[in-house]
Write a structure and sequence with these properties.
The chain contains no helices and 15 strands. The chain starts with 47 loop residues before the first strand and ends in a 5-residue tail after the last strand. It is 0% helix and 52% strand.
C-alpha cells in the first residue's frame, strides 16, 4: 500500500549560488524535490480519500561547484509544509484504477539567484500541484503507475528579486513507475519511479528552464501483518539540457546540475485506525552545481479507504 500521490512536493532545491571569489554555473531548478518518494512509490493507493500533512526538511551544509568541488559551507535549514488531498476512485480506465490529487504547499524560503544570504526568510504559499490523471495497474506480483500533473505559478514571484515563494513558471510533470514483490507473501518489495519535468518560460524573464529527470527507487520488507514496511530509499537527479533565453545567463549555461541521495525509511499503515505515518532520511552525495545536505521527509496521513463491493 502506498500514498505516492502525496509525495510530489512543490518545493525547489537551492541552486545557482556563488560566494566571494568563486562562481557557480548552475541551472534553474524545477518544482519536483529530489527524494520525496520512497517505499511503494510505484504503486497507487487503493480506492479511497487521503488527506495528509507532509513536512519536508532540508539541512544544507555544503555548496558544490560545477565539478563537484566544495566552494562554501553554509548552515541553512529550509522547511516546506504541505496540505495534500488525494482520491483514488473505483472507476477503471484501460483496466487501471483512476485517481486525482492536489497539493497546497507553504515554504519558508526559496532562493533562485546566484548568491546565498542565510538571514533572508520569505514564507508564503508556493506553486500548487494538480494531478488530474493518476492510473494504477496490478498484475500478480507487479504494480504499474502512470501519472500526469502540472504546477501552476500560484506562489509569489517577482523577477526583480531572488527571494520568492514561487518559481514563476508553469511546469508539466509525467511519472511512470513500477513495484514488485519477490515472494508469494509479498513481504520483500522493490519499487522505482521516474519523474520527467517539462517547463514553460518564467514570468517577466526571457528564460525557459530545461527539462529534468528524477529516478527514485526503494527496497523494503513488510512486518506486523503488512502494517510496517522497513527498508531503504534513494534517488538520482539530472538536468537534461540547459536553460534557454537571453536571461538564462542569470544562472549560467554551462553546467547541468545533478545530485544523488540514499537512506533508511520506515512506514506504518493501519487502515482500521485510518492512520499512516512515514519517515525517510536521505544523505545527498555526488552533487554538482547544487547545494548538498540531509533530507528529512515526514508523512502523516488520514485514510478513508472505500470498502470493496460485496
Amino acid at each position: 500500500m502506498t500514498y505516492r500521490g502525496f509525495y510530489r512536493l512543490v518545493f525547489s532545491t537551492l541552486l545557482a549560488l556563488s560566494a566571494p571569489s568563486y562562481s557557480v554555473y548552475a541551472q534553474q531548478s524545477g518544482h519536483y524535490i529530489q527524494g520525496i518518494t520512497g517505499l511503494d512509490n510505484g504503486t497507487t493507493a487503493p480506492p479511497g480519500v487521503y488527506v495528509a500533512y507532509l513536512p519536508y526538511i532540508y539541512d544544507i551544509d555544503t555548496l558544490k561547484g560545477s565539478k563537484g568541488n566544495t566552494i562554501l559551507r553554509p548552515d541553512l535549514t529550509l522547511v516546506a509544509h504541505n496540505a495534500v488531498y488525494q482520491v483514488t476512485t473505483k472507476r477503471k480506465i484501460l483496466g487501471a484504477s483512476y485517481g486525482i490529487g492536489v497539493i497546497f504547499p507553504i515554504v519558508n524560503t526559496r532562493l533562485t539567484a546566484n548568491f546565498l544570504n542565510t538571514n533572508v526568510q520569505n514564507a508564503g504559499v508556493s506553486d500548487m500541484y494538480f494531478s488530474p490523471i493518476t492510473l494504477g495497474w496490478e498484475r500478480g506480483k507487479a504494480t504499474y503507475l502512470l501519472n500526469y500533473g502540472f504546477y501552476a505559478p500560484s506562489g509569489n514571484f517577482d523577477p526583480t528579486t531572488s527571494i520568492n515563494s514561487g518559481l514563476g513558471f508553469w511546469e508539466h510533470q509525467i511519472q511512470a513507475g513500477m513495484g514488485y514483490s519477490f515472494d508469494k507473501k509479498k513481504l520483500w518489495n522493490a519499487s522505482a519511479l521516474s519523474t520527467w519535468e517539462i517547463n514553460h518560460s518564467k514570468t517577466g524573464l526571457d528564460l525557459k528552464p530545461g527539462p529534468m529527470v528524477n529516478v527514485e527507487y526503494s527496497l523494503g520488507h513488510r512486518f506486523d501483518k503488512y502494517k510496517i514496511n522497513l527498508g531503504a530509499a534513494g534517488y538520482l537527479y539530472h538536468k537534461l539540457s540547459a536553460d534557454s533565453g537571453s536571461d538564462s545567463t542569470i544562472f549560467g549555461t554551462h553546467t547541468l546540475d545533478r545530485s544523488f541521495g540514499i537512506g533508511p525509511e520506515f512506514k506504518y499503515t493501519n487502515p482500521i485506525k485510518h492512520f499512516s505515518i512515514d519517515f525517510r532520511y536521505e544523505k545527498q552525495f555526488g552533487v554538482q552545481a547544487k547545494t548538498q545536505g540531509d533530507v528529512y521527509v515526514i508523512g502523516l496521513t488520514w485514510l478513508n479507504i472505500f470498502l470493496p463491493p460485496h
